[in-house]
Amino acid sequence: MPETKAIDQLRRHHPLIVEGMGGYDSREPAAVASAITAHLKRRWSVEPPTKPLLLVTQGDPYEEKGIAAITRLIADELSIARGLIFLDPAIADYHLPNADRYKVTLELPYSAMVNTLQRAIPDAVNTIERLVDKELAEKQLKRRTLGRPPLQDYYRDFALLQEVTKIACKQICGGVTVAHTSAEISDFSVSSFYRVGLESGLIDASEMVLFGSAHPESEPGTSSSIP
């Protein structure tokens, strides 16, 4: 599907983005998915989306545990299709071939989301990159202090994918819902970069549905499939 057609298709939906741990999540996916779906239904009973839902994924390969399994189940419980945002081959050539395409009806590369966001908010991508680099530097310093090896280079790529995806989706569609699969978070995961969207002001806490709470401001969240 051409990028412009895929973006037009995305624009007709309200994007749901579920962020959480990958296959190292030991919890039963069905229980987690049911809890998230319950939180979402409570939220939407008060503030229903004005467009049909689309669950937007970020290229996670299928695993029996963690985010890939959980998002499949949520899509089934809500009876909705999924969209896929993937890293361009020049960034990670393995990302798209390995991505789970269950119920996927549209696919867009990261570069398309970057370009769309730059047109909508010219300084947004630079702001996201600056804050991601700041977070990454702080994490690397903390790891050195603890005598641990540095985080691998791909952390930056996946952190940017995570934040650009949800912020661009918000701009394209006029809104977004971000759901988290856990109330716990590791400072050394891509998950923790969710703070970038909040710090930039490009994602609001009211747009997030955090695990175990009906009140978005009351708990920290978790995001991304990279440990």
Which keywords apply here?
single chain; 227 residues; alpha/beta; Rossmann fold; 6-stranded parallel β-sheet; 8 helices; 6 strands; 12% strand; globular
Describe this protein's structure.
The protein has 227 residues and is of the alpha/beta class. It has helices spanning 3-11, 29-46, 67-78, 95-98, 110-120, 124-145, 154-173, 194-200, and strands spanning 14-19, 53-57, 82-86, 104-109, 177-180, 208-209. The chain has a single domain (3-218), classed as Rossmann fold (3-Layer(aba) Sandwich), CATH 3.40.50. Strands 4-3-2-1-5-6 form a six-stranded parallel sheet, sandwiched between helices. Mean pLDDT is 90; it is low at 214-227.
SSE diagram, text form:
Layout: H1 3-11, E1 14-19, H2 29-46, E2 53-57, H3 67-78, E3 82-86, H4 95-98, E4 104-109, H5 110-120, H6 124-145, H7 154-173, E5 177-180, H8 194-200, E6 208-209
Parallel strand pairs: 1-2, 1-5, 2-3, 3-4, 5-6
